[in-house]
Each structure stands twice: as C-alpha cells, then as structure tokens.
Design goal:
The chain has 348 residues and is an alpha/beta fold. It is built from eleven helices and 13 strands. Helices cover 29% and strands 20% of the residues. Helix 7 runs parallel beside helix 9.
C-alpha cells in the first residue's frame, strides 16, 4: 500500500480527492492538512465521508515535518503560490509530488509571471513535468519527481486539439494553426469556495456570464502545450470562458478552420489512433454532442466533432467534470500510472 498525503484538502478539489483516495484499493491516506481546519475530523468538514474517514483529522500544514515523515507521495491541493512553497521542501526530500495548482504547469518563467505574478520556486521548474496522461510521452514516469496536473479548462481543450495540432501544417494536415476559438462554460465549483457576490446562488442561478476575456490564466497553459505539441512556432487561440448555472462540469466548443482537403474522417482517425485503448476518453459519433450530465462524477472526457461545409470549419465539442478529470481524478490517474497501478484503480 502506497502512503499518501493531501495538503490543502478543504477546497472542492481537495474534498473530491479525499473521496477517491479513501476508496482506492492500493493506497493508504496517511495525512490530510488544512490550516483552516486543524484538529477537526474529516467527517465534520466533509460530512459525505461519515463512516469512511478512518478516524482521520485535519493536521497543520508544516512542510518540513511532512518532508521528514514516511509518506511516499503528496498531492498539493493548494492555490497557486502556496503549492510552490511546499514543493520546495518535499521534492528535495525525495517525495513524489503531484501538484493540482498552476505553479508548475507553465515551463516558461516569464509566461508564468505574466499571468500569475512572482514564482516562489523557479528553481524547480526544470524538474517539473506537465502530464496529461493520454498525451504526455511516458518517459515522465521515470524522469520526474514533481508532476503538474493540468487545469480543468485546458483538459477540455487540449484533449481534442493536441492530436490535430500534431498533424497541422504540411501535407496531410487536418486543421489550421490559426483562428482557433474555444468557448468554455464551467460550473461554479471551478471558482473554488468563495463568498464573493458574483458566486452567490441568487447571482448565478438562471444566468450565464463571460469572464476573464482575453487573458484568463489558463490561456498560458493551453497555448504553451499546443505550441509544444505543434513542434515549432507559437499557437495563439481565442479563449472565452463562461460561468454556467451548474455546480460542476465544463462544456467546451472549439471552432477551427479545416486544412485544405481535410475531412471529418481524417479528424476522427487522428483521435482514434491517439486514444485507442485509453479508458478515460470517449469519442462520440459525429453529430452526437456530449453532455456534462453524462460525465458528472467520472474521470472521462467525452468529445465529438462535425464539419461545417458552409464555413469550412471543424466544430469540436468536449465535456469533463471539472472536479474529477479536470482536477482530482486526473491527479489520481497520474498517480496510478506513476506507481504502476491499474490506470483505472479507484476511478472506475
């Protein structure tokens, strides 16, 4: 049994992570920390865990003490900035670390600081690996001690786009590398536990609202990964995020010009060659659009595409649960692969 700890477990992704780990057949949840909940039983803070919490209580978040202990792997379910401070203590101590924040998702320091401000552990950027399990070459399993789990919006956009971007340009290309537009709608849990007016039920119910236009923080992660996968040159996209009146889930619609001569069959062939045998990507028939209700509580990406003969665009749709495949479930999937467990362990 692998001994794991969750640092910063009182937010929505942290709560979801606790549920997954407590039910996981190959791990023992040995530490749960939260500076705001110290001394409280898990079942008091997360009542849905009553009878399943194994008597665990929240402890303080002492990075040095955690680094000196016998826990094998830590999940950092913390805001950006705070996660880096813990990584600075845990990684040199030989611990495996999976970070759910943005601190190590962006390899370029200048780009990170443009979107997030000062980085608190820039010396670790070269040691970190961004891992989207279905797309990142498997060498990461032996090369890294610090893993950056992708964000929720990026997962919904990169999963359908990366196989196409890898085939963009030149003979046999499928899509253009220009004029890519992604419109995404997220459940309110994606904003975290906040008491600001715009997140109140009476403000968000029966209402959809765009936000973060032109410079949402996840844009840096999306563009960097698309550019790396394109093999040269920077890919710029128009990313338009929205709040939707639901608790969880992300629905993304991507419009991208088809390359000359490209067909919907070529697009689907690229998807199928990339995701054949991968349990958490479901490719729906062209014309059958995915629904957030069908992925709630799962670690899946459901996606499909159509070709618009009038505009010569591919229109791609994808859905994920922002708290599972967009955060905690994906982190557990990464752990499973990293530790040579079944990829679906604790996630089926």
């Amino acid at each position: 049994m692998l001994k794991v700890g969750v640092i910063g477990a009182s937010g929505y992704p942290g709560e979801q992570l606790l549920k997954l780990l407590l039910a996981h057949p190959r791990v023992t949840l040995a530490a749960v920390t939260s500076r705001s909940q110290v001394g409280k039983p898990l079942s008091q803070v997360v009542p849905s865990l009553r009878g399943q919490d194994r008597g665990l209580t929240f402890t303080g978040s002492d990075a040095a003490a955690l680094a000196a202990g016998d826990i094998d792997l830590f999940f950092l379910a913390l805001p950006h900035g705070a996660a880096a401070e813990f990584a600075k203590a845990l990684v040199p101590a030989g611990k495996r670390v999976i970070d759910l924040s943005a601190d190590f998702r962006i390899a370029d320091l200048a780009t990170y600081e443009k979107y997030y401000g000062k980085h608190h552990a820039p010396e670790l950027l070269a040691k970190a690996r961004f891992v989207l399990p279905e797309l990142t070459p498997p060498s990461w399993k032996t090369e890294a001690r610090l893993i950056a789990a992708p964000g929720c919006y990026p997962t919904s956009i990169l999963t359908p786009l990366v196989p196409l971007v890898r085939r963009a340009g030149g003979a046999g290309g499928i899509i253009s590398r220009e004029h890519i537009v992604a419109n995404s709608h997220s459940g309110i849990s994606g904003a975290g536990k906040k008491t600001e007016e715009m997140y109140l039920y009476v403000e968000r119910a029966e209402s959809i609202k765009a936000y973060g236009l032109t410079k949402h923080r996840h844009l840096a992660e999306i563009e960097e990964q698309l550019s790396l996968n394109a093999g040269g040159g920077h890919i710029t996209i128009q990313f338009n995020p929205h709040f939707a009146p639901m608790r969880r889930g992300i629905a993304t619609t991507i419009t991208v010009p088809a390359a000359p001569g490209a067909t919907i069959d070529m697009l689907y062939a690229a998807w199928k060659s990339t995701y054949d045998g991968r349990p958490f990507v479901q490719i729906l028939p062209s014309g059958e659009t995915p629904d957030t209700a069908h992925v709630t509580g799962t670690n899946r990406v459901d996606m499909s595409a159509v070709f618009d003969a009038r505009t010569k665009n591919f229109v791609i749709t994808s859905v994920v649960d922002n708290l599972v495949k967009g955060a905690s479930g994906q982190a557990v999937q990464i752990m499973n692969l990293w530790c040579d467990f079944e990829e679906t362990a604790g996630l089926a």
